[in-house]
Amino acid sequence: MEIPFAESFRIKMVEPIRRSTREERERWIKESKYNLFALSSDQVFIDLLTDSGTGAMSDRQWAAMMLGDESYAGSRSYFNMKKTIKDILGFDYFLPTHQGRAAENVLFSVLVKEGDVVPGNSHFDTTKGHIEFRKATAIDCTIDEAGDTQNEYPFKGNVDLEKLEAVLKQYPKEKISFICLTVTNNTSGGQPVSMENIRGVHTLAKKYGVLLLFDSARFAENAYFIKMREKGYENKTIKEIVREMYQYADLMTMSAKKDAIVNIGGFIAFRSEEIYRQATTFNIMFEGYITYGGMSGRDMNALAVGLDEGTEFDYLDTRIRQVAYLGFKLDEYGIAYQRPAGGHAIFVDALKVLPNVPREEFPAQTLGVELYLESGVRSVEIGAILADRDPVTRENRYPKLELLRLAISRRTYTNNHIDVIAASLKNVYDRRNEITRGYKITYEAPIMRHFTVELEKL
Ligand code: F0G
């Protein structure tokens, strides 16, 4: 008999979670104005809101925490981080920040000017927020395949090089802050960018004299997909693939809460000493002195170990197979999601699962609330609420896809939890003909409204 696959870790510490009743959940979600962010974690059984900062650290990371050096300036922990970034990613200059959006804030303060454009592949919401906040425009050049959830294209995170070149031709290079390449592409479904595409984007960046920034939150998962799917990479280690990917980048912003498997932390890495020096001033103003940037020494130590562990094949294989397992269960039940399964999450196609809810009534949010009511599983809407209003016309933006993201935390849940998630979705799907109405917005913030939006059931 073939020996089945099993996780590349065993469990040393556990945290109890509690089931609730449907009556309790009905009360709690109503009190939360149908915004899943407003629930307290005790009201959640399985939390798929995000994979950000919610993973389980290893024994090696906890040991590194104890060795954290809390000196204000020049701490050993800073130098641990510096050495790891140089070894794994190849950058000489870096600044620690407290998380990814802080890295964006500091770096974009140097590079993004009013009236600029930032082409890329489906900018993450905080990235777009930091661009639009500076009265610049994010231009999405993702390939069209990403807009069809049933297309099995293996690199749906890719940039359409023709769309990108059209933007690079249209604007003078002084107006282009940089090209922003998100690896993996979170918004399009945790979908990877191929090495070939990375190379193509790099060639265009050089041709037009524009900087290339990698938004790197899930860069190791991207490298795993290159190894598994791209010809010529099957025998390379993840670390070799990562080194090649980053040869093509001028800059990176990192939310270490994902692929560095820490609960908090981030950084910016630079090829250019000059941009590093300019960013230093903003880092000191917004984050902290340049050798801690809003992080404690112990957190920097855990981050350094996490970068090393997060770029090991066995860890990534366990992680991404678990996400794929959820995909297989949904296949069994006929539930449509962004195919093939992504790196950190399954993105359920809400327009296909709840076909009777009008777009103006937010089908993905409706599905998220129904899933929560079913069994206390918390997910997140990646649809029209997240897309915000157009900054100029103030009209609602309806993205091509209306998705419900089921983000899987690293090393946190077992496949029994995955079975609960899949069965709960199946029950909602079985009731799809009875679900015909969604929600209307009763309160929203002017930007990034999804965090604090309040809704009323229609
Ligand atoms: N870039 C990407 C691709 C992200 O997914 C995120 C965060 C950030 C930047 C910002 O990093 O949260 O550390 O400030 N994504 C989380 C998510 C929040 O749920 O996908 P941060």
Spell out the blueprint of helices and strands.
Layout: H1 22-31, E1 46-47, H2 59-66, H3 76-89, E2 93-97, H4 100-111, E3 117-120, H5 125-133, E4 137-140, H6 161-170, E5 179-182, H7 195-208, E6 212-215, H8 219-229, H9 238-247, E7 251-255, E8 266-270, H10 273-286, H11 297-310, H12 313-333, E9 345-349, H13 350-353, H14 363-375, E10 377-378, E11 380-382, H15 384-387, E12 403-407, H16 415-430, E13 439-443, E14 454-457
Parallel strand pairs: 1-10, 3-4, 5-6, 6-7
Antiparallel strand pairs: 2-8, 7-8, 9-12, 11-12, 13-14
Helix pairs in contact: 1-14, 2-11, 3-11, 4-5, 4-10, 6-7, 8-9, 12-16, 14-16
Bound molecules: ligand F0G.
Q: What is the makeup of the main sheet? A: 5 strands, mixed
Spatial extent as radius of gyration: 21 Å
* CATH second-level architecture of the largest domain: 3-Layer(aba) Sandwich
The overall pLDDT, averaged over residues, is 97
**End-to-end separation:** 54 Å
The CATH topology assignment of the largest domain is Aspartate Aminotransferase, domain 2
Low-confidence runs of at least 5 consecutive residues: none
For the largest sheet, list the strands in their spatial order.
Answer: 2-8-7-6-5
Helix count, per DSSP? Answer: 16
Report the oligomer: single chain
Name of the CATH class of the largest domain: Alpha Beta
Name the helix and strand elements from N-terminus to C-terminus, one letter apiece.
Answer: HEHHEHEHEHEHEHHEEHHHEHHEEHEHEE
Helix content: 40-55%
Label the structural class: alpha/beta
Q: Name the CATH homologous superfamily of the largest domain.
A: Type I PLP-dependent aspartate aminotransferase-like (Major domain)
Task: Quote the beta fraction.
Answer: 5-15%
The rough form would be described as globular
Q: What ligands are attached or bound here?
A: ligand F0G
Number of E-state strands: 14
